[in-house]
Amino acid sequence: MSSRQSAGPRRRRARVLPSVAVVDAGSVPGGRILAALARHTEAGAPSPVVALDATPGQVPGVLWRQADPCDPGVVDALRDVQVVVWVAAAADLQSALDERASVRRARVVRAAQTLVTATAAAGAARLVVVTSAKVYGALPDNPVPLPEGAPLRATPDDGVVGDLLAVEEVVAAARSVHPGLVVTVVRPAALVGPGVDTVVTRHFEAPRLLTVRGATPAWQFCHVEDLASAVVAVVAGVVAPVVTVGCDGWLTQHRLEQLTGMRHVELSQATALGTAQRLHRVGVLPAPASELALALYPWAVDSATLRAGGWEAAYDNETCVGVLLESIAGRHALVGRRVSPRDAALGAASAAVALVGTAAALRRARKR
């Protein structure tokens, strides 16, 4: 299916962008946001777009500055900007898993604290932090869609979602510590796009789609280009404490299977999450069981604030599924862990085997 053409902020409401800096601009979502801001500038906004990253890139109309978000010296790179954008949500799961969880958590929290302080000290008016709708938690009793003001019920464990919950705590505290700083948190649905690697995208690298008996998932996606246009809308003037962004509506499990051509395997909640929890504890699975729940229970959102500001998603959920399948072509994963095609064929005929059939590995780990 073809994507709809995004209207973005309506023409009659379009504004000249303030000067803006994008932190970690070298990441996949950070790069898309940077490019979208630069295009807006090329359309007539004279204010500069600044990219902060360890390695300078090549985006026309962008001023690159090398800066470490964990270093208090980052304040010098923010002196002449009015809005700071930071993409805290990782879209490179492999890099996140290669770092010890405690070290990764400490780094992310330190970056959040440093950027909040530096943004205020540099005299910037706004801080925009991109986390994820995953912080709402994937739970059987979630309303569909979740309102932007819904409580954050994700499990604060050692996974990447736990990292984002820690970032959200720092951001929430910043509103009282720095009352003159306007802070907006942007929470996208499951990201898809070239180069995006997350727990959700790896769910589709498995031989079959794992489901839980009696659960009713509500699949919703967010293309990185839609995230970028949403951030442009926020920078241009959509002001709110929280903004959620995703495709209109959601997909049922049945519709998802029609689009992917994949079959599902159904387990009980106790078997799926209990086994995943034990395997993660001994290091067999890379992500905690709470992140497996993202593929089992609903966490769809309603982009109400953005729509009220004139924003529209350019991609629908059906198109995003196609983009996702194209981006993972040739990759194979068993409950989040990447394997070779040969290993995938030998190791599991279904996600059930991937979960329950690893009992031997669990026993070996216990012996060690």
Number of strands: 13
Portion in beta strands = 5-15%
Helix content: 25-40%
Largest sheet: 7 strands, parallel
Shape: globular
- Which regions have little confidence, pLDDT < 50, spanning 5+ residues? 5-14, 332-364
Mean pLDDT: 84
> What is the overall number of helices?
14
Strand order in the sheet with the most strands: 3-2-1-4-5-6-10
Based on CA atoms alone, the radius of gyration comes out at 20 Å
State the end-to-end distance. 51 Å
**Computed structural class:** alpha/beta
**SSE series:** EHEEEHHEHEEHEEHEHEHHHHEEHHH
3D architecture notes:
The chain has 368 residues and is α/β, with parallel strands linked by helices. The protein contains 14 helices and 13 strands. It has helices at residues 28-42, 93-98, 101-121, 160-177, 199-203, 224-236, 253-260, 269-281, 289-292, 304-308, 317-327, 341-347, 351-356, 359-367; strands at residues 20-23, 49-53, 62-66, 83-87, 126-130, 182-188, 190-192, 209-212, 221-223, 242-245, 264-267, 332-334, 337-339. The strands form 4 sheets. A 7-stranded parallel β-sheet has the order 3-2-1-4-5-6-10, with helices on both faces. The protein is globular, with a radius of gyration of 20 Å. The N and C termini lie far apart (51 Å).
